[in-house]
Amino acid sequence: MPQNARQQQIIDLVRQRGFVSIEALAEHFAVTPQTVRRDINQLCGRELLRRYHGGAGLPSSVENVAYKTRQILFHDEKRRIAQLAARTFPTALAVHQHRTTTEEVAVALLGHATSG
Q1: What's the structural domain count of the chain?
Q2: Most buried of 20, 84, 114, 116, CB within 10 angstroms?
Q3: How many Cβ atoms sit within 10 Å of the Cβ of residue 105?
Q4: How far apart are CA 86 and CA 78, in angstroms?
Q5: How many CA atoms lie within 13 A of 76 on its CB side?
Q6: b/e 51-67 (16+ beta carbons within 10 angstroms → b)
């Protein structure tokens, strides 16, 4: 069963943002949350999306998710973690990073004053 135009747009939004809440989708499309849930359930049934608490995201797989995609997944949460972590670090600190959350920590540390 092919998806309708709204369902295709939902998929596109999730691909762009990594996660979209039910409320944001309902507001975006000017429909009820129940309509969005029904669309998401249909898309999840076809394994095009994955349902998470409060919204939908990309389906997980056994393959690694591309770094660019991981950068946008849960970005606000990563930023909050980074800001909390940066407050606990000394002002002169080098951070080796190769993950998206530690990348956010490094960005948060840019605001630290250097010692000396």
Answers
A1: 2
A2: 20
A3: 21
A4: 12
A5: 4
A6: beeebbbbeeeeeeeee
Residue 21, SS3? strand
Domain that holds residue 88: 74-109
Instruction: Please give the residue that has the higher pLDDT: either 97 or 83.
Output: 83
Whether the pTM exceeds 0.85: the reply is no
Position 7, amino acid: Q
Tell me, yes or no, whether 45 and 86 share the same domain: no
| Residue 87: inside a domain | yes
Mention every residue, 6+ apart, whose C-beta is less than 8 A from residue 21.
54, 55
Q: From CA 102, how far away is CA 72, in angstroms rounded?
A: 13
Whether residue 36 is predicted with pLDDT greater than 70 in this model: the reply is yes
Give the domain CATH number at 46.
1.10.10.10
Q: How far apart are CA 12 and CA 9, in angstroms?
A: 5
Contact 6, 40 (CB under 8 A): no
